[in-house]
Amino acid sequence: MKKEVRDYIKEENNEIELMLGKFTNLKIIGEGGNGLVYSAEFLGEPVALKILGETNQTSKKSRFKAEFFNTMKLTENKLIVKYYDYDLLMIGDHSYPVIVMKKYISSCKGKRFQSFNDVKKFVDFLFEGMSFLHEMGIVHRDLKPENILIDKDGNYCISDLGIAHFDTNNFPEFYKTVQNERLANYAFSAPECLSEKGISPNKNMDVYSVGQLIQWAICGSLHKGTNRKRFWKCDLEYMDKDYLYSLDLVVDKAISNNPQERFDSINDMRRELCRQLKQKKVIDPFDEMQLLQGMITDAYPEDYGEFTCIDDVQQITAILKNIKCSKFSENSFWFNEGIGNNKITRFEQFDNGVTLINSGCLKIL
Predict the structure, then answer these.
(1) Same domain for 267 and 334?
(2) Domain co-membership, 125 together with 226
(3) How confident is the model over 321-327, as a mean pLDDT?
(4) Domain count for the chain
(5) Residue 106 C-alpha from the chain's centroid
(6) Where are the beta strands (DSSP E) in 281-350?
(7) How confident is the model at residue 10 (pLDDT cuts 50, 70, 90)?
(8) Which domain does 111 fall in, by range?
(9) CA distance linking residue 101 with residue 104, whole number of Å
(10) Tens digit of each residue's pLDDT (9 = 90 or more) over 137-150
(11) What whole-number distance in Å separates Cα of residue 271 and Cα of residue 277?
(12) What is the pLDDT of residues 201-218, one digit of tens each?
């Protein structure tokens, strides 16, 4: 069915006629399991066309219609995708639903977050945008980088409410989910969305997805299983250690496989992050020791769980090069010359085997 849409648009010289008028210069910019997305021009302005290319199932048509009309029913919010019109593209005896929407520059798929400021902006967006949807009575259920769009000014926007659950107290019920119907994506969705049958939509499903999106943004990958990669191990420019330390604690709870152990909502996540940031942190020395152990083990895995004597200059140099004193809390990283402790404010390893400690040099022979 999608092939019929593609072939038709090609045959029509990349133009289609809808009730609104003629859309020209169509170029495909995206494709999902059920639909196609084209960029186009209408009355000289850039737009995007989201076309449902698989129309054999009534449920898919109903969800597509619900996505448009329920999204249009929302209060105007720049963090939620902007739709303009719903129409039908007629090709022979077949009708294909079309959503006319704002043209966005790209999605977050493949995006790399280089600095702390990039991450902070993304986290703030997730909290604000998803809190708005939850307050409106919507559980998204399909959050992933492809469904977060970026406009020409670099601002983010939540899109694709095709399998969202809409509270029937606020929205009309276009279609009721049937038992055994699989919803959501495998990578970013809560485990219960994929493994349990007949489970009721819950806000903490989105909590899990937001936690995984934050993990992905900072570390470049998702977390499954144990030994989650900590944010302090990720190289970001201009890092705020207190923020990342607090965010680590929040994400730990958000991506629990057990729904009962997660936050109940995105607002609860945001409040906990604020609470962690406001309270004066008491540094646990064992946490600091674990941090140092991680840096040593990354450079010398044989050290894990063992007492080790290292006399190889290259191994010692590699370990020292991997130690970053800026990762530790204030006053927790120091050295002793026999006459008193000295706080380390600068620790830098050079290629010639010299380690700079504050203003002094350590040479390994």
Answers:
(1) no
(2) yes
(3) 70
(4) 3
(5) 15
(6) 334-336, 341-343, 347-349
(7) very high
(8) 106-278
(9) 9
(10) 999 999 999 999 99
(11) 10
(12) 899 999 999 999 999 999
Position 362 scores a pLDDT of 72
Tokens in use for 75? 């209060």
Is residue 124 located within the same domain as residue 273? Answer: yes
pLDDT at residue number 226: 77
Tokens for 223?
């977390």
First to last CA, the chain: 71
State whether 233 and 307 are in the same domain.
Answer: no
The more confident residue out of 30 and 300 is 30
Contact, 124 vs 167, CB < 8 A? no
Tell me whether strands 138-139 and 106-107 are parallel, antiparallel or unpaired.
unpaired
Instruction: Identify residue 285 by its one-letter amino acid code.
Output: P
Q: With 80 as the cut, is the pLDDT of residue 293 above it?
A: no
At 318, list the tokens: 């590699």
Task: Looking at the structure, tell me whether residues 58 and 142 fall in a common domain.
Answer: no
From residue 105, alpha-carbon distances to 37, 142, 207, 275 in Å are 13, 21, 27, 36
pLDDT-based confidence at residue 20 (cuts at 50, 70, 90): very high
Nearest 5°: phi and psi at 271?
-65, -40
C-alpha distances (whole Å) from 157 to each of 66, 116, 131, 154 are 19, 20, 13, 10
Q: Give the tokens for residue 179.
A: 């038992």
pLDDT number for residue 341? 63
**Alpha-carbon gap, residue 147 to 272, rounded angstroms:** 26
Q: How far is CA 124 from CA 202, 262, 270, 273, 277, in A?
A: 22, 19, 9, 11, 14
CA dihedral sign, ordered 326, 327, 329, 334: negative
Tell me if 250 sits within 8 A of 231, measured CB to CB: no
Distances (CA, A) of 244 to 48, 80, 155, 212, 345: 37, 26, 22, 15, 21
CATH classification of the domain holding 23: 3.30.200.20
